[in-house]
Structures are given as structure tokens and as C-alpha cells.
Amino acid sequence: MHESAKEPRPATGPAAYVPRRITGPVLMGVVPGQPLAVAHRAAELAFSLNVKLVCAYVDVTSYLAEEPDGRIEARPIDPDGIDDDIEGISAAIKERLREALDGTGIGWSFVTLSGDPARALGRLAESADASVIVVGTRERGLGARFEELLVGSVAVHLTHRQHRPVLVVPLAPHTKHHPKEGH
Predict the structure, then answer these.
(1) Residues 166/133, Cβ–Cβ less than 8 Å
(2) In terms of Cα–Cα distance, which of 29, 21, 72, 2 is closest to 162?
(3) How many domains does the chain have?
(4) What is the average pLDDT across 100-123?
(5) pTM of the entire structure?
(6) 21 and 86 in contact (C-beta within 8 Å)?
(7) What is the chain's mean pLDDT, rounded?
(8) 133: domain range?
(9) Please, what is the angle between helix 86-101 and helix 36-49, to 10°?
(10) Distance, CA of 43 to CA of 100 (rounded, Å)
């Protein structure tokens, strides 16, 4: 057996560090229309770590409120606003993930959260004891840049609000076209 493949041994000295096995699930933030590259990277990570994958969609049009009886309930930010079909959006995302992940052998689940995406994902990561949070970058374009200026990056907010590592999967990177060799 190769030296690095053996079980870790306690280090000697005052700062003895013993690595622990990663057992918490991989938590992936999902948005409607997100390229499957994010799900694929998150699934590969979960597979490699031999842990479950938890996929979470955060409905930003609602917030969590505590009822007088102690229950926590999602309420719309604007009750008179456009009636978005959150259940339909969630169902469509879950079905797309089912098509991409079923049959891969990876245990996965889907949940819909409410509120600020970074806070909601951070709360779920804490309660699920997630080992890592995976998110995608926004698609390129003026609208995405303007939105990011207004609300900021979920990945940046996550790195400042909780202690877990955040893996950012780049989407639609700006690359020059390189023809394949020999063609």
C-alpha cells in the first residue's frame, strides 16, 4: 500500500492534525435553466467522496416567517405581485435533475428553500452538515452583470457567511475558439 493511501497517523508535536473522512453531503445550489455542468460537477464530487448529493433551489420571491404557534412558513415578499408558479418551477428543476442523475448510482435529493440564497444555502449546509457547497457562476451578459452589482454573488456571500468550502463551477467561460489539431 502506498504511504499516502494508509490511514492517517496522528502527527507528533503540539499541533497534531489528524485528517478526518468527509462524510457530509455535497450541497448544490440550483437555479432555473442552469446548465447541467453544475449538477455534473457536484455529482462527480459526491461520487468521489462517496456521499449523498443534496440539490437546493432557493425561491427568492418568498421569505421565512415564524407563525404564532411556532411553525416556520414561507410567505411571498409581494402577496399582490405576479403569482409565480414556484411549485411548477421546483417540479421542473427536480425533473431535469432526475433525468440527469437517476441511474448514476448517486444518492440525491431535492429541496426548495425560501429567502436570500446565500443565507438559505448556509442554513441548509449547517443543518445537513454538508462537506462542501457547489454553485455555478452566472451566465455572461449585461443583465447578469447588472444583477450581480445589485445583489452580489451568492458564492461570495457564502464564503463570508459560513465555514464550509464553496466550489464555484464556471459557466460559459469566455474562450477563444481553437480548432482541433489535425482538422
Answers:
(1) yes
(2) 29
(3) 1
(4) 92
(5) 0.72
(6) no
(7) 78
(8) 22-169
(9) 60
(10) 10
Is residue 173 over pLDDT 60?
Answer: no
d(CA 46, CA 100): 14
| 89 in any annotated domain | yes
In a domain, 14, yes or no: no
| pLDDT tens digit sequence for 94-105 | 999 999 999 999
The 10s digit of each residue's pLDDT in 31-77 is: 888 889 999 999 999 999 999 999 999 988 765 556 677 766 555 55
122: exposed, middle or buried (Cβ count in 10 Å: 0-12, 13-18, 19+): buried
Exposed, middle or buried: residue 167 (CB in 10 Å: 0-12, 13-18, 19+)? middle
Q: Where are the beta strands (DSSP E) in 90-165?
A: 108-114, 132-136
Residues with Cβ < 8 Å from 148, sequence gap 6 or more? 138
Name the residue type at position 109: S
Q: What is the CATH number of the domain that holds 32?
A: 3.40.50.620
The closest of 14, 22, 27 to 167, measured between CA atoms, is 27
